[in-house]
Specification:
149 residues; mainly alpha; 0% strand; elongated
Amino acid sequence: MRRYIKEFAMRGMVACGFGPVIWVIVYAILNAVRVVETVSVAKVVIEIISVTVLAFIAGGIGVVYKIEKLPLVAATFIHALTLYADYIVIYLMNGWLGREMLPLVIFTVCFIVGFAAIWLAVYFSTKNSANKINERLSSLKDFESKQQI
């Protein structure tokens, strides 16, 4: 278990550097289209810290797929639930998402669709790569067995 905690921390530390960069890009775009012109120092500090935490958790939680004893369905559920909780808490805390029912429902639907699309793309890509590797190994094994004859 210790190795998974260590890997979570390492993945999180790598990812958390990107959170503030993405935050700056978003504010630069908002400023360019004149949606936001000034932001208080207190708000900037809170948002930098919160996106760093968000990115740390989002980056680290993928470690659940490394736990061999954890079924894929359980790992996927833990991953999705952790990401959803991470995003919704930070978004609500920073006022990036309205607390009314409609914005929450829209966010939830977008999250589910986005998570499913990304997960399925990665799953089938990985499965395709594994099949190609297995085919090559099988061909190599067949070639070696013919050489021994």
